[in-house]
Amino acid sequence: MEEINDLTYAEKMYLLKIYQLSMDEDKRISTTQIAKLLEVKAPSATDMLKRLACKGLVSYSKYQGCEITKEGISIASVILEQMLLTQRFLNTQLGMAMEDSQRIAEKIITLDEPLLFDSFAKILSSPNR
Fold it and tell me: What domain of life is recorded for the organism (predicted)?
């Protein structure tokens, strides 16, 4: 089973976007959709989909796009949870604008520091905050 900390920043972002698209649509996600969303060329998106497929996080078929696997959903949901927690912390505790907190949260979630996310959760759940 693939570990979340074994994924690169790009792999996490692709997986997160595929997960989000799959929640909106109940079908395969096209390479073109992913490329547009991530502002990359279609060949780059294809290469990443193949990489994620090799890790068992998506199933990919040429000309048919991809579908997120159960393992991919499991990891992507953790990534999304960490990102939303980080955004909320940056927004509520540091007063950052939502757009800024989203951009920065995307970078922070690549850190392999569970303690950081646990600390965010503790601070946000504290009644004194």
Answer: Bacteria
